[in-house]
Write a structure and sequence with these properties.
Order of helices and strands: EHHEEEHEHHHEE
Distance between the termini: 53 Å
Mean pLDDT: 84
Structural class: alpha+beta
Number of domains: 2
CATH architecture of the largest domain: 3-Layer(aba) Sandwich
CATH topology of the largest domain: Aminopeptidase
Number of strands: 7
Strand order of the largest sheet: 1-2-3-4-5
Helix content: 40-55%
CATH superfamily of the largest domain: Gcn5-related N-acetyltransferase (GNAT)
CATH class of the largest domain: Alpha Beta
Low-confidence stretches: 186-200
Radius of gyration: 20 Å
Length: about 200
Protein backbone atom coordinates (compact mmCIF):
# COMPACT_ATOMS: atom_id res chain seq x y z
CA UNK A 1 0.00 0.00 0.00
CA UNK A 2 1.27 3.47 -0.90
CA UNK A 3 2.65 5.95 1.63
CA UNK A 4 1.04 9.39 1.37
CA UNK A 5 2.13 12.64 3.04
CA UNK A 6 -0.75 15.03 3.74
CA UNK A 7 -0.21 18.58 4.97
CA UNK A 8 -1.51 19.08 8.52
CA UNK A 9 -4.58 21.20 9.10
CA UNK A 10 -4.58 23.86 11.82
CA UNK A 11 -6.39 21.53 14.22
CA UNK A 12 -4.11 18.62 13.40
CA UNK A 13 -1.08 20.82 13.98
CA UNK A 14 -2.36 21.87 17.42
CA UNK A 15 -2.70 18.23 18.45
CA UNK A 16 0.70 17.39 16.96
CA UNK A 17 2.39 20.32 18.70
CA UNK A 18 1.17 19.32 22.17
CA UNK A 19 2.26 15.72 21.57
CA UNK A 20 5.62 16.95 20.27
CA UNK A 21 6.20 19.12 23.37
CA UNK A 22 5.81 16.08 25.61
CA UNK A 23 7.99 13.83 23.45
CA UNK A 24 10.63 16.52 22.98
CA UNK A 25 10.89 17.18 26.72
CA UNK A 26 11.59 13.48 27.30
CA UNK A 27 14.20 13.35 24.53
CA UNK A 28 15.87 16.48 25.89
CA UNK A 29 15.96 15.15 29.45
CA UNK A 30 17.60 11.92 28.26
CA UNK A 31 20.09 13.41 25.81
CA UNK A 32 20.89 17.05 26.58
CA UNK A 33 23.60 16.85 29.19
CA UNK A 34 23.18 20.06 31.14
CA UNK A 35 21.49 21.22 34.33
CA UNK A 36 18.71 23.77 33.99
CA UNK A 37 16.46 25.53 36.48
CA UNK A 38 13.71 25.53 33.87
CA UNK A 39 10.93 22.96 33.95
CA UNK A 40 11.53 20.42 31.11
CA UNK A 41 8.06 20.78 29.59
CA UNK A 42 8.22 24.58 29.68
CA UNK A 43 11.68 24.52 28.13
CA UNK A 44 10.56 22.19 25.34
CA UNK A 45 7.49 24.30 24.62
CA UNK A 46 9.56 27.50 24.45
CA UNK A 47 12.10 25.97 22.07
CA UNK A 48 9.39 24.64 19.76
CA UNK A 49 7.56 27.97 19.77
CA UNK A 50 10.81 29.64 18.76
CA UNK A 51 11.11 27.26 15.80
CA UNK A 52 7.45 27.63 14.80
CA UNK A 53 6.42 31.14 15.86
CA UNK A 54 3.54 31.20 13.35
CA UNK A 55 2.56 27.61 13.95
CA UNK A 56 1.59 25.67 10.82
CA UNK A 57 2.05 28.86 8.77
CA UNK A 58 5.70 29.41 9.78
CA UNK A 59 7.68 30.26 6.65
CA UNK A 60 9.74 27.44 5.06
CA UNK A 61 8.44 24.79 7.49
CA UNK A 62 6.45 21.85 6.14
CA UNK A 63 4.54 19.55 8.48
CA UNK A 64 2.82 16.45 7.18
CA UNK A 65 0.80 13.53 8.48
CA UNK A 66 2.01 10.16 7.17
CA UNK A 67 -0.68 7.80 5.94
CA UNK A 68 -0.65 4.23 4.77
CA UNK A 69 -4.01 3.90 3.12
CA UNK A 70 -6.49 5.37 5.58
CA UNK A 71 -4.25 4.79 8.60
CA UNK A 72 -2.28 7.62 10.18
CA UNK A 73 1.12 6.14 10.99
CA UNK A 74 3.27 9.15 11.90
CA UNK A 75 4.51 12.67 11.19
CA UNK A 76 7.21 14.48 9.21
CA UNK A 77 8.53 17.99 9.84
CA UNK A 78 10.97 19.55 7.36
CA UNK A 79 12.41 23.02 6.85
CA UNK A 80 13.31 23.96 3.26
CA UNK A 81 15.53 26.94 2.45
CA UNK A 82 15.46 27.25 -1.34
CA UNK A 83 17.98 30.08 -1.49
CA UNK A 84 20.51 27.88 0.33
CA UNK A 85 19.50 24.78 -1.64
CA UNK A 86 19.23 23.11 1.75
CA UNK A 87 16.64 21.21 3.78
CA UNK A 88 16.64 20.12 7.41
CA UNK A 89 14.66 17.22 8.83
CA UNK A 90 13.34 18.25 12.22
CA UNK A 91 11.41 15.06 12.74
CA UNK A 92 10.26 11.83 11.24
CA UNK A 93 8.09 10.06 13.81
CA UNK A 94 6.55 6.66 13.14
CA UNK A 95 4.03 5.33 15.66
CA UNK A 96 5.44 2.45 17.64
CA UNK A 97 3.11 -0.21 16.24
CA UNK A 98 4.30 0.59 12.70
CA UNK A 99 8.03 0.58 13.39
CA UNK A 100 10.37 -2.07 12.00
CA UNK A 101 8.23 -2.49 8.87
CA UNK A 102 10.17 -0.27 6.49
CA UNK A 103 7.87 2.74 6.71
CA UNK A 104 10.64 5.07 7.85
CA UNK A 105 12.76 4.18 4.83
CA UNK A 106 9.83 4.63 2.42
CA UNK A 107 8.93 8.02 3.89
CA UNK A 108 12.51 9.26 3.73
CA UNK A 109 12.82 8.22 0.09
CA UNK A 110 9.55 10.01 -0.71
CA UNK A 111 10.81 13.15 1.04
CA UNK A 112 14.13 12.96 -0.81
CA UNK A 113 12.35 12.72 -4.17
CA UNK A 114 10.19 15.72 -3.20
CA UNK A 115 13.29 17.73 -2.31
CA UNK A 116 14.99 16.77 -5.57
CA UNK A 117 12.02 18.17 -7.49
CA UNK A 118 12.44 21.41 -5.54
CA UNK A 119 16.07 21.65 -6.64
CA UNK A 120 17.50 21.06 -3.15
CA UNK A 121 21.17 19.99 -3.01
CA UNK A 122 21.66 19.20 0.69
CA UNK A 123 19.41 17.22 3.04
CA UNK A 124 20.50 17.54 6.68
CA UNK A 125 19.34 16.21 10.03
CA UNK A 126 20.42 15.72 13.63
CA UNK A 127 20.37 12.45 15.53
CA UNK A 128 21.44 11.74 19.10
CA UNK A 129 24.21 9.19 19.48
CA UNK A 130 22.03 7.01 21.69
CA UNK A 131 19.39 6.62 18.96
CA UNK A 132 21.01 3.64 17.28
CA UNK A 133 17.94 2.65 15.26
CA UNK A 134 17.65 6.07 13.64
CA UNK A 135 21.39 6.27 13.00
CA UNK A 136 21.29 2.90 11.24
CA UNK A 137 18.38 4.05 9.06
CA UNK A 138 20.06 7.31 8.07
CA UNK A 139 23.37 5.63 7.30
CA UNK A 140 21.61 3.06 5.10
CA UNK A 141 19.96 5.96 3.25
CA UNK A 142 23.35 7.50 2.52
CA UNK A 143 23.60 10.19 5.22
CA UNK A 144 27.15 10.92 6.37
CA UNK A 145 28.50 12.35 9.60
CA UNK A 146 29.07 16.09 9.23
CA UNK A 147 30.29 16.73 12.79
CA UNK A 148 30.54 15.03 16.16
CA UNK A 149 29.76 16.43 19.61
CA UNK A 150 31.82 14.77 22.33
CA UNK A 151 31.00 14.35 26.02
CA UNK A 152 32.74 13.19 29.17
CA UNK A 153 30.70 12.78 32.34
CA UNK A 154 32.23 13.77 35.69
CA UNK A 155 30.59 13.96 39.15
CA UNK A 156 28.59 10.84 38.38
CA UNK A 157 26.82 10.85 41.77
CA UNK A 158 25.36 14.29 41.04
CA UNK A 159 24.51 13.41 37.47
CA UNK A 160 22.49 10.37 38.56
CA UNK A 161 20.48 12.49 40.98
CA UNK A 162 19.83 15.07 38.27
CA UNK A 163 18.67 12.41 35.80
CA UNK A 164 16.26 10.89 38.32
CA UNK A 165 14.78 14.25 39.29
CA UNK A 166 14.42 15.34 35.65
CA UNK A 167 12.71 12.06 34.77
CA UNK A 168 10.31 12.53 37.68
CA UNK A 169 9.57 16.08 36.52
CA UNK A 170 8.82 15.01 32.96
CA UNK A 171 6.52 12.24 34.12
CA UNK A 172 4.91 14.33 36.86
CA UNK A 173 1.39 15.70 36.55
CA UNK A 174 2.20 18.44 39.06
CA UNK A 175 1.83 22.11 38.29
CA UNK A 176 4.75 24.12 36.93
CA UNK A 177 5.22 25.82 40.31
CA UNK A 178 5.39 22.44 42.06
CA UNK A 179 7.90 21.13 39.52
CA UNK A 180 10.14 24.17 39.91
CA UNK A 181 9.91 23.80 43.69
CA UNK A 182 11.04 20.20 43.39
CA UNK A 183 14.08 21.26 41.36
CA UNK A 184 15.03 23.96 43.84
CA UNK A 185 14.71 21.74 46.90
CA UNK A 186 16.23 18.49 45.69
CA UNK A 187 18.77 17.00 48.08
CA UNK A 188 21.74 14.79 47.37
CA UNK A 189 23.23 12.00 49.42
CA UNK A 190 26.98 12.08 48.78
CA UNK A 191 29.33 9.44 50.17
CA UNK A 192 27.05 8.80 53.13
CA UNK A 193 26.84 12.48 54.12
CA UNK A 194 23.46 14.13 53.70
CA UNK A 195 23.76 17.67 52.37
CA UNK A 196 21.39 20.20 50.85
CA UNK A 197 22.57 21.24 47.38
CA UNK A 198 20.24 22.90 44.85
CA UNK A 199 21.01 22.60 41.12
CA UNK A 200 21.51 26.37 40.86
Amino acid sequence: MDIVLKKMSENEFTIYFEDKVERYSKVQSENVHEVSSEDPLSKARKQLYNLLPQGIETSNHHLYNIYEGDSLIGFVWIKVEKEKKSAFLYEIFIFEEYRGKGFGTRVMKNVEEWLERKGIYYFKLHVFGSNKGARKLYEELGFEIAGINMLKTINWHLVICHIEVTRALVESQSSTIERISLIRNVSFSIKGNFIEQPFF
